[in-house]
Amino acid sequence: MRFTTLVDRYLIFFPQRDLDGTLADRGLEFKDVFFEASDGVRLHGWFVPGTTDKTIVWFHGNVGNIGHRVDNIAELHNRLGVSIFIFDYRGYELSDGSPSEKGTYLDAEAALAYVGSREDAGAGEGIYFGRSLGCAVAAEMAVRSPPNALILESGFTSVQEMASVHYSVIGVFGRLVQTRFDCRAKLWDIHVPVLVMHGDRDEIVPFSMGRKLYEAANEPKRLYALEGAGHNDTYVAGGDGYYEELARFLDDPTSSASG
User: Which domains does the chain carry?
Assistant: First the structure.
């Protein structure tokens, strides 16, 4: 394995194989799903049927696995009634393979193909929801296969900018890091409604990066600052307002009001 690949893998991706919980712990009906990426890698996800014609495809961050999103998924489903499909990238939990930027895009394409194949999801309104690193994956998919709307929560502008902000060791080896995940650059080519949500006390990804993503996005767009929220507690610290903003956006994504 090349040194540059090792740098990428051990400084960017932090997968966890053990599943700490499932949606059954929250009493939700869901489908345990296995599907394949175009290069044959077997992937795992959950499909939660909803009561509306809206389906959220969830692209999670670089740490843990889908089991760490159980509470957030349950609250989102129960409050908004949307169908949700969340999956693990290669190398995470039950998904085979090893993670890479290219691999996450192949995995995401396979996830969208799976959702499109379901009669209870494919014909509805598709919304991509990216969180943290998943914002760049969601944005890449929005370029390739535009959704009805795009939600970016706690997203960073690019791996390179994150390196310059936080990690001096990555700064030293910056030229060796092959992973880009340049979310801001992708937004210039996206022409669907965008909602950017970001905690104003995010200790990992500065709020200023959320604002940069908003500024790079084309209209119609919304920026919602989650007061008092850090990086991983947005849906808790945001309280009712978090879900109310999501509901407003899903009901009328073309509105450009900012919060």
Answer: 3-251 (3.40.50.1820)
Q: Which residues pair with 223 in a beta bridge?
A: 196
Rounded CA-CA distance 166/160 in Å is 10
132 is catalytic: yes
Please pick, among 95, 100, 132, 154, the residue that the annotation labels catalytic: 132
What Rg do the C-alpha atoms of the chain give, in angstroms?
Answer: 17
Q: Which of 88, 107, 182, 202 is catalytic?
A: 202
Which of these is catalytic: 120, 200, 231, 255? Answer: 231
Could you say which DSSP state residue 42 is in? E
Provide DSSP, 130-174: EETTHHHHHHHHHHHS--SEEEEES--S-HHHHHHHH-HHHHHTG
What confidence tens digit (pLDDT) does each residue in 74-87 have? 999 999 999 999 99
> Which of 43-52, 115-124, 159-168 is least confident?
159-168
For the question of residue 39 being annotated catalytic, the response is: no
Residue 179 is predicted with a pLDDT of 74
